Probable DNA ligase
Amino acid sequence: MLLATLARVSREIASTSARSRKTALLAELFRSAGPDDVPIVIPYLAGRLPQGRIGTGWSLLREPVPPAAGPTLTVREVDAALTAFAGVAGPGAQAERARLVRELLGAATEEEQRFLSGLLTGEVRQGALDALAAEGLAAAASVPAADVRRAVMLGGSLVAVGRALLARGPAALGEFSLRVGRAVPPMLAHPGQSAGEAVGKLGACAVEEKLDGIRVQVHRDGERVRVFTRTLDDITDRVPELTSVAGGLSGDGFILDGEVIAFDANGRPLPFQDIAGRVGSRLDVAAARQALPLSPVFFDVLALGGEVLLDLPYRERYERLAGLVPEPMRVRRTVVTGPDEAPLADEFLARTLERGHEGVVLKGLDAPYQAGRRGTSWLKVKPVHTLDLVVLAAEWGHGRRTGKLSNLHLGARRPDGTFAMLGKTFKGLTDAMLEWQTRRLLELATGESGHVVTVRPELVVEIAFDGLQRSTRYPEGVTLRFARVVRYREDKPAAETDTVGTVLATGPVRAEE
Ligand SMILES: Nc1ncnc2c1ncn2[C@@H]1O[C@H](COP(=O)(O)OP(=O)(O)OP(=O)(O)O)[C@@H](O)[C@H]1O
C-alpha cells in the first residue's frame, strides 16, 4: 500500500465527525491492503510506530525538507526505514539519524510529510482509532464488528486478527479464543452512586470488597504459571508468592482474576503506593518479598480445566472458583437477592470501609464475563470520588520548584479519543513526585512554548476535587474546584481514563467565581 493512500484516508477521517463515514473510509482502506500491510497500517492510523518509541522527536523534524513531486513510498518502505533508524547506534548516531529522517521526508510528498511528522513526533496519537479500525476491518471482511472485537480481546491484538482476516477471510476469526497462558484484558466496573442504587439496577448480585491493590490475572498450564497486570504486562518474576499459590492449587488449565494487596502487622490493608512499589520493583525480589509479602485475593475464574468459562453466569463461575481457591484467598462478599435486601449491601459497605478497604464492587449474578469491557453488570461504589485524568502539559515551577515541572494541565477523554483540558493543579505533589514527574514528562515532551511543556497524553493521574465550576477558560466550559493530585496511575492506559461525560455526571456545576 502506498503511504499516500494511508495519509489521505487518515486526513479524511480526521476531517469528518460521522462515525459511519470514518468506518466506510477504513473499510475501503483495508480492502486495498495486503495482510502484511496490516501490522503497519493499524498502528500508523492510531499515530503509533510498531517499533515503539525510537526517539524521532520534534528536534529532528525542525528543518523543512523539499517534498517529492509524486507519491512512490509504500508503507512497508517507511516501516523498513524506521526500523533502520531505530537500529542506529554508536558514534555519529545523531548525524546518521538526522540523515535517515531527511532521506525519508525527501521521498515523501507534502501530504505524506505532514502525516509522517505527526507520526514521528507522536502528536497525532488517537487511541480511539483502534476501535474504529476494528469496525473498518469487519466491514471490509463482511463480518459483524462484535465478532472482530471479541477475537481481538481474546486473541490479544487487532494486528493479529486483522492480518488473519485479510489473509484467510471470516473463518480465521475462529482461531482467536481464550487461551491459558495468553493475557486477556480484564473486565472493568462502572461507577455507581450508592450500594442501594446499584442493587436496584442489578437485582440479585454479589457485593464484594473493593480492594485497593494491583489487578492480577493468574494463568496456570501444568508447571507453567504466568501473572499479568491489568495492562497485560507479565510480572510473573516479580510476584513469586502468586506463582507458588497457583502451583499449589488442585486444579489446572485455569485463569484466575483478582487483586493483589498487602497488610500491615495489625491486619490493615497497606496503601496502594506500597503495593505498586513492591510489584514494580524488579531488583532483589526475594528481599522485597520479605519486607512486604503480597496476598492474592481472587474473585473470578475465566477458564478451568482448559474449559473457557467467560459466557457462564457469574454465579456459576463463582462456584467453580470456590471449588478451586480456598476461602481465605477469595474476596470477602455477601450476596443479596434484590432491592428488598439493599440495606444488607449498605451494611456490608460500611463494614468494608471500617476494615480499611476503599469500597465495594457489586456484580450481577447472571452476567457473563465481559473481557476488556466496562460492563454494566459491575458497579463500583466508594465514598471518595476521584477522577483519573491525563496530563496534557506541565509548567516549569517557580521558587522552590524551579527546574521542576510542576503545574499539571489535566484532560478528560472525549468520545472521539481526544482530550479536553479541565484545569490545572500543582497541589498534592510531594518532592519525590515532582522529581519523578519532571523526568517522566520530559520523556513524553512534544514541544515547549514559554514555560509550558506539552506532552503526549499518556500519563494518567488520579485527582481529588471538591466539585465542578463553570469556566469560560476551558473548552468544555467547566473546570474542577480545588483539584489536587492523589497519585499517579501508571497501571492505567490513557484510553481508560474518565470521560468528559463522567466528569459532568459527578455533580452540579457551580457558577464561575
Ligand atoms: N472485588 C473486586 N472486583 C473487581 N475489581 C476489583 C475488586 N476489588 C478491587 N478491584 C479493582 O477495582 C478495579 C475496578 O474499578 P475500575 O475498573 O473502574 O478500575 P479503576 O479505574 O482502577 O478503578 P478505581 O480508579 O476506582 O480504582 C479493578 O480493576 C480492580 O483492580
Observations:
- The mean pLDDT is 93.
- The CA atoms of residues 81 and 104 lie 7 Å apart.
